Amino acid sequence: MDSANTTGLLRSVIAEAYAESPHLLYVLYALQQQFLHISEEAVREVAAHLDLPSSQVDAVVEFYSFFHKTPRGRYDILFSNCTSCGYMAGGVDLMAMLGRRLDIVAGNTRGDGLVSMDQTSCIGMCDHGAALLVNGMPITSLDDTMIDRIAALVEAETPLEDWPAGWFQVDDNIRVSGLLLKDDLLAGICLRAMLAHGAADTLSEIIQSGLRGRGGAGFSTGMKWQFCREAQGAAHYVVCNADEGEPGTFKDRVLLHSHADSLFEGMTVCAFAVGAKQGYLYLRGEYRYLLPHLQSVLARRRELGLLGVDILGQPGFSFDIGIVVGAGAYICGEESALIESLEGKRGIPRVRPPFPVTHGYLGQPTVVNNVETFIAAAHIVLRGSAWFRVVGTEKSAGSKILSISGDCAAPGIYEYPFGVTIRQVLDDCGAKDAQAVQVGGPSGTLIDSAEFDRRLGFDDLSTGGSLMVFSQARDLLAVIVNFAHFFAHESCGFCTPCRVGTTLLKNGLDKIAGGHGTRYDLDEMQHLAALVKCRSHCGLGQTAANPILDGLQRFPQAFEQRLVHRDFEPHFDLDAALEEARQISHRDDAAAHIE
Amino acid sequence: MSADTKQNPITQNTITIDGQEIPFQAGQTIMDAALAAGVYIPHLCHRQGLTPHGSCKLCVVDIASRSVSSHNSDRRLQAKFPADADSRSASACTMPAVAGQQISNNTPALNEVRKTITQMLFIEGNHICPSCEKSGDCTLQAMAYHLGMLDGHFPQFFQRREVDASHPTIMLDRDRCILCELCVRASREVDGKNVFAIAGRGINAHLIVNSASGKLVDSDLETSDLAAHICPVGAILIKEHGYEVPIGQRTFDLHQVSEIGLEKTILTKVRQPDE
Ligand SMILES: Cc1cc2nc3c(=O)[nH]c(=O)nc-3n(C[C@H](O)[C@H](O)[C@H](O)COP(=O)(O)O)c2cc1C
Ligand code: SF4
Ligand code: SF4
Ligand code: FES
Question: Which residue from A1, B64, B101, B102 could staple onto A5, CB 3.0 to 4.6 Å apart?
Answer without folding.
Answer: A1
